[in-house]
Structure formats: structure tokens, C-alpha cells
Write a structure and sequence with these properties.
The chain is built from 6 helices and no strands. By secondary structure, it is mainly alpha-helical. It is elongated and about 60 Å long.
Length: 159
């Protein structure tokens, strides 16, 4: 029953990840007019924020969170929280730099060492973000997070 409950949410999360991947792969082709690239970047950043919000809403829905044991959830999903926040910051930085350099001249060659480094770092972080986010989205629907059980008592015993 629990898997059927989360099927629409997982589908929406996968859609947002696919949209982010699509924008990452094609944003360089939409340089003219530059406003098109601005709109794509805004959609991408809003999609990342929605993904983070959905994960937090799923956290808030768990038995573990309602029992006041957020530290257990944080221990299990710390990597996603760090990577998602980092990816959002890196994305905003990359988008701002790209748009500020190209705003007046959309076809200007701006591939300096710093920009290439940031672009490469952004793309590598995006792959890591997709992997960790998808893994977390599949793990958070595990029924053990939504009921009391032996594993929770074992986790409490460790702390």
C-alpha cells in the first residue's frame, strides 16, 4: 500500500530530475535571445528547490520524524542534504556568471579557465546530485520509516 501512495510523488520527482538533466544538456543551445536561457535557468533552480522541498515533506511524513527523532533521519540522509544544498548554490553561481557574461552579447566567447572549471564542477555535481537524490527518493519510501520497529530501537540504542 505504501508504494502505491508514493508512486505519484516519485514520478513527479523523476520528472523534475529529468527536466534538470534536460536543461543542463541543452541550455548552451538557447543563447539567443538570452532571456530564453534566463527562463531555463530559473526553471532549473526552481525545480531543484521543489525537489528539496518534496524530500523535506517526505521526511516530515515519516514516523521517525513525528516521534521527534530527526537526528536518525539526518544520519541516514545527510549526504543528500549536503549535496542538494551544494548543487543549488553551484547552479545559481554558474547561472549568474553565465548570464552576466553573456547578457549584452549572447554569442560572446566566455570560456575562461574559471568559467570552464565552474562549468565542469557544475556538471559533475549534477551527476552526483541525480544519483544521491534518486537513491534517497527510493529509500525514503521504505515502510520501516513509517512505523515503529526493531530497527528504530536498535538505532536509538546506538545513540
Amino acid at each position: 500500500m505504501l508504494a502505491e501512495q508514493f508512486c505519484p510523488i516519485l514520478s513527479f520527482q523523476y520528472f523534475l530530475l529529468f527536466l534538470d538533466l534536460l536543461i543542463n544538456a541543452t541550455s548552451e543551445y538557447f543563447k539567443s535571445p538570452i532571456v530564453t536561457q534566463l527562463v531555463l535557468f530559473v526553471i532549473q533552480d526552481v525545480g531543484i528547490i521543489f525537489c528539496i522541498m518534496i524530500i523535506f515533506l517526505m521526511f516530515f511524513n515519516t514516523y521517525v520524524f513525528r516521534a521527534g527523532l530527526f537526528n536518525i533521519l539526518f544520519a541516514h540522509f545527510r549526504m543528500l542534504l549536503i549535496i542538494a544544498a551544494s548543487y543549488l548554490i553551484i547552479s545559481i553561481t554558474y547561472h549568474a556568471w553565465s548570464l552576466s557574461e553573456r547578457w549584452l552579447e549572447p554569442h560572446k566567447y566566455i570560456w575562461t579557465r574559471g568559467f570552464v572549471t565552474l562549468n565542469l564542477f557544475h556538471k559533475c555535481c549534477s551527476v552526483l546530485y541525480y544519483y544521491v537524490y534518486k537513491r534517497t527518493a527510493l529509500r525514503i519510501v521504505d515502510p520501516r520509516f513509517y512505523q515503529d520497529g526493531k530497527w528504530l530501537r536498535k538505532e536509538l540504542g546506538k545513540r
